[in-house]
Design brief:
The structure holds 2 protein chains of 2 kinds.
Chain A (H helix, E strand, L loop, with lengths): L2 H4 L2 H5 L5 H10 L4 E2 L11 H12 L12 H15 L9 E4 L1 H13 L5 E6 L5 H7 L3 E6 L10 H7 L4 E6 L12 H13 L3 E5 L24 E6 L12 E4 L2 H14 L5 H13 L1 H25 L11 E2 L10 H12 L1 E2 L1 E2 L11 E4 L4 H17 L1
Parallel strand pairs in A: 1-10, 3-4, 3-5, 5-6, 6-7
Antiparallel strand pairs in A: 2-8, 7-8, 9-12, 11-12
Chain B lengths: L2 H8 L5 H8 L3 H14 L19 E9 L8 H8 L4 E6 L6 E7 L2 H12 L5 E8 L5 E2 L2 E2 L13
Antiparallel strand pairs in B: 1-3, 1-4, 2-3, 5-6
Helix pairs in contact in B: 2-3
Classes of the chains: A alpha/beta, B alpha+beta.
The structure holds pyridoxal-5'-phosphate (PLP).
Chain lengths: ~375, ~160
């Protein structure tokens, strides 16, 4: 059977992520020491796991309301108010989803029509462009620059805008660069956004992992709330990736539409995870602080070591990645990573996996124990000396 | 608690340059702080964590609960000092609960430990009773997991 004749043309046109090839090699080797993982190495805090276990023991195994438990929406509302000064009505402006991933998918689907343009800055998380294409819309890529600390500049946004521009996807703290946007950066950006009447999806999944200043949400700036959907979740802040729980917050008209979509394709996010999440939001502040301070130590070690090795690494202020520049070696990102993998059995991710402009960089995750990091960094140092 | 101490208690082989990066302090400051801790007797030494389970002829270890009569002036200190003077005894602590002193005792064989307990320990003045427990297998010791270390089960995602 020639499946290409039968299957959806739009989805066929989205190319599978190139990085899979690299991952396949990694998976075939044993004894690989990896700095390539994009999730916390911490386990979900025990009291949070316990809340999930208790809900199962008590037989709480039914669907929840489509938008999530009311109690959970209330806790989310309180949490984002306390942390980011955001103000969302738990009854109408918050939707609990299957990870930030689902929230991103349905937000894009609710906001764009075929033929419209979605502005995506890169290097960034890999799903924005494919999800846009699957809506029949066009992704317009803006390349952020190392000399600007990978922040999106208003002139870069301005230059990418056309009459077809509909939506900007903002992704800070950033995977893979570790970049953040300060309040001032967001302020000047928001003027361009408002001037051109754009909608915004702000993916703030790493908002609890910042190392100097507290995270600022663009939705807290004047004139932005009405045009922004904020995406967040439990995966990174509470080390809950496997529970698959996230949320979207925005004006009630947009959330209502997303809820309609969510209701038909998902019904409701996992029940056990929602019970655990309520506990996480209520009593998880000290867990966040503990993990944040561990990441912070590792961050300084990894960034300091790369710079000392001669691979220029700008100081990441968020998430748990750093993004060393490897141009001085004369290798491409993929060559660098493949050689490193074969000769030293260390896995890191080529920067161009996060957009073409990531070429010349590699993503190093520091979501590992210090001992593991020192071993891997030692091997990278040997690798560089042997080049 | 000072993170410097926590880091060194996890791994005493960190270089000052590593510690300086981890803690965001200058190498000089780290050196001075370590020196001060050594002088104050906060840092008492640096040693390897050895998994004796994997070493042949590494002997036996027992945990011994001791009930004692405290002395009038020095309470439990006097008897504790006499107990810890034995080279067979590798640790001594005063405990709250149903017994007073908790000791670990090492010997080449079970017989060695037993005879130490019956001849030397229980005959000490002030010792009321002993209860000896032999270690069969250690799974985790002083924060270190000794059984084969868990593999990283995380998958490659972005
Ligand atoms: C920037 C970014 N957004 C969203 C996600 C998705 O997270 P989840 O679906 O687990 O909430 C990730 C995961 O790596 C991410 O890095």
């Amino acid at each position: 059977m020639d499946y290409s004749k039968y299957l959806n043309k739009t989805i066929q046109s989205v190319k599978p992520s190139g990085i899979r090839r690299f991952f396949d090699i990694v998976n075939e080797m044993d004894d690989v020491i990896s700095l390539s993982i994009g999730e916390p190495d911490f386990r979900t805090p025990w009291h949070v796991r316990k809340a999930g276990i208790d809900s199962l023991e008590n037989g709480k195994t039914w669907y929840t309301p489509n938008r999530g438990f009311k109690k959970l929406c209330q806790e989310i509302s309180g949490f984002v108010n306390r942390k980011y000064n955001l103000d969302y009505n738990p009854d109408t402006e918050i939707l609990v989803t299957v990870g930030g991933s689902e929230a991103l998918d349905i937000a894009i689907r609710c906001m764009v029509n075929p033929g419209e343009e979605v502005l995506v800055h890169q290097p960034s998380f890999v799903c924005y462009e494919p999800l846009t294409k699957m809506c029949g819309a066009q992704a317009v890529v803006m390349n952020t620059k190392a000399e600007n600390d990978f922040r999106l500049k208003p002139e870069e946004l301005e230059a990418a805008i056309t009459e077809k521009s509909k939506l900007l996807i903002l992704s800070y703290p950033n995977n893979p660069t570790g970049a953040i946007m300060t309040k001032d950066d967001l302020q000047v950006l928001s003027e361009v956004i408002i001037k051109h009447d754009l909608l915004v999806i702000s993916d703030e999944i790493y908002s609890e992992l910042t190392y100097k200043d507290k995270h600022v949400s663009i939705a807290s700036l004047p004139g932005m709330r009405e045009r922004t959907v904020v995406i967040n979740g439990f995966s990174k802040a509470f080390a809950m990736t496997g529970w698959r729980l996230g949320y979207a917050m925005g004006p009630k008209e947009i959330i209502a539409m997303m809820t309609k979509l969510h209701q038909y394709c998902i019904m409701s996010a996992p029940t056990v995870a929602q019970y655990a999440a309520i506990e996480a939001l209520k009593n998880g502040d000290k867990d966040i602080e503990h993990m944040r301070s561990e990441y912070d130590m590792r961050r300084r070690l990894v960034v300091g070591t790369f710079n000392a090795m001669g691979l220029e690494t700008f100081e990441p202020l968020g998430a748990f990645y750093c993004f060393p520049c490897i141009k001085s070696t004369g290798l491409t990102s993929e060559e660098f990573c493949t050689k490193l993998l074969h000769s030293k059995h260390v896995a890191i991710v080529p920067g161009d996996a996060f957009g073409e402009c990531g070429e010349g960089f590699v993503r190093v995750s520091y979501s590992y124990s210090i001992n593991h990091l020192t071993e891997a960094l030692g091997r990278i140092k040997e690798f560089l000396e042997e080049l | 608690m000072d993170k410097l101490l926590r880091l060194l208690s996890d791994n005493s082989t960190y270089s000052t340059s590593e510690l300086s990066m981890l803690l965001g302090e200058s190498e000089q400051a780290i050196k001075e702080r370590i020196d001060a801790y050594e002088k104050q007797g906060v840092i008492k030494g640096y040693r390897a964590v050895i998994n004796w389970e994997k070493v042949a002829d590494s002997g036996v270890t027992a945990y011994i609960e001791l009930k004692v009569t405290p002395t009038k002036d020095k309470g439990f200190d006097e008897i504790a000092e006499r107990v810890m003077a034995f080279e067979e005894v590798s640790s001594v602590s005063l405990m709250a609960g149903t017994y007073d002193l908790g000791l670990t005792v090492k010997g080449d064989t079970i017989q060695d430990v037993s005879s130490f307990v019956s001849r030397k320990l229980s005959t000490l003045e002030g010792v009321l009773s002993t209860a000896t427990h032999f270690f069969l297998k250690r799974y985790k010791y002083d924060g270190t997991v000794l059984t084969d270390t868990a593999v990283d089960e995380r998958c490659m995602q972005f």
